[in-house]
## 1
Amino acid sequence: MKEGFNSRRLWLKLGYFLAGLTIIALVIIGVTWIWFVQFVDTYQQGYVFNTRTGKITTLERTGYFVRTPIVEQYHTVDLRPMQVCINANQRVLNCKLVQFNAKGLDLFLSWHGRRDYEGPGTGGSRKGGKERTTDFSEILKSYAYEGTGKIYPFLSVVRELKNEDAK
């Protein structure tokens, strides 16, 4: 005996097809977003390294950027002021409020290389509820307390804090 047209089975197959199509579309959108879209926040200076030419280009704006994977590598530098301190035995001896100056980006990158330079309070710089220093803040601290008095174009000392003002 031949069965007739079963609309319930048709709707079930259509539902499975649409669910599968939706999952595939979401995976494609996610992979595209991860590979082709880069975000530079308002407190960051972004720059692009072109792997074909070796040229570094400073980004003029913040926000979302569509990139070419493998050819372009986007990196950022934190522009927010950060406090760097000289400590001894859990006692603060001296602190300075320093800020990265984007005008000296090329010199900084030639000395320290290309990568993301994040300040304290971002990414993985919190451990156990206590803010810890980052490689970037340690780099800026070494230039802020360098004893020769040389002025670096990538570093601005916003304020020198006395022992009473620090933390």
## 2
Amino acid sequence: MDPKGFLERAKELTRSAAAEAERRLRELRERLDQDKDGRPDVLEKALREAEKALEEAKAKLAELDQDKDGVPDKLKELSEAAKKAAEAARAKAEEAARLLKGRLGGKEG
């Protein structure tokens, strides 16, 4: 085969391969976008599910945060209870230390 014929054949094969690739790409897009809106259906479904999950999370947070301060009320209650328990424990420890000091001080004299 002469060089010119070879180049023509290479161009023809290249055009054919490009056309085949375009055809396959079109088919793939059609399969992924059944509703023909330009966006893959799987992506649209994932976005809808993410939006639904976000709305559910917002609703749950609103339910847990009745006073709308950004902190779930139950967490606030637990925090306050833990603070009170820590204060009570500190008071008992101080009382125990005072009594122990009194006993130890009483035996020395």
## 3
Amino acid sequence: MAAPEHVIEKRKSSVLFKQAELGLAARMMLGLEGRASLAISKKLLGGNWVTGNVYLTPDSLEFRPDFLDAKLHKNGEELRLTVPLEKITSMQVRQGIATQILDVTAEEVTVSFRCYRANAFVSAIETARAASQT
């Protein structure tokens, strides 16, 4: 998927989607044990992690799944999201297993981004938000 225009910063990231559903080919590749593990993980986490890129633009955070994840999910085209910077009410970084997780809250909805150098990304988002308000 093509990047948006005017990208300030880009991060390889995963986003936790409640509505992510694997397609038939992905379920067949996983086999029974893999599907069982995925179902348990989805129940515990409240969704599935979808890999792609998160882009910081002057107006928003935009997530776009990578080609493979978009094709392996039934609803691959729905696994995109845009969070306007002006709607962000809070950001919190927490430690995940291998990477940090950035929780962005906007209008009572929280989006979790799993990425490296999340604290630096928060700083870039805050700088873009400040610039957009002037």
## 4
Amino acid sequence: MAINIFVVSIIVLSIFFTNMKVEEKVQKREYVNIPLVVFEDSIMYDINEKEISNIVQSRQALNYEDRDELYDATIISRNNTNTSDNINAEYILKQKGIYKLYQNVSISQGENITLMSDYIEYDSIKKIAKNNVEFLLSYNESELAGTNLYFDAINEIIKAKDSHFKIKLKEKTK
């Protein structure tokens, strides 16, 4: 008799447990994006066999897995003509070869070309700079001012909306 009760109880329990629903408790992990490396008042150098090619100076530099952030930054690059290209901005965001420069942006190439704006997006792979706010581009002593800049350095194309171009003519000598 005890064996019959035992067998029946096993059958009843097995039917009960096979029909019982089990809920999986999934723990949600919050993705916390913290910087991998933080530099305060930093100066970083890119050095090759011959020279220092880039100097990056910033009040704060943050390196994340997917992006780099620079605050109060200056980037100095040496170009082929042995002059330097300077980029200054209060905030620079670099993501996958695209630089987004914010607040008091100033880009100078050598001593002849200067571009100033509050926002510029630069694709370092395609060599295209663009923005959607006011800008001032100076070349020697001539100026181009406007909005919605599109500058293709490879194909040498400059487009802008609401633009105004001032050309300084050379004075004739007697």
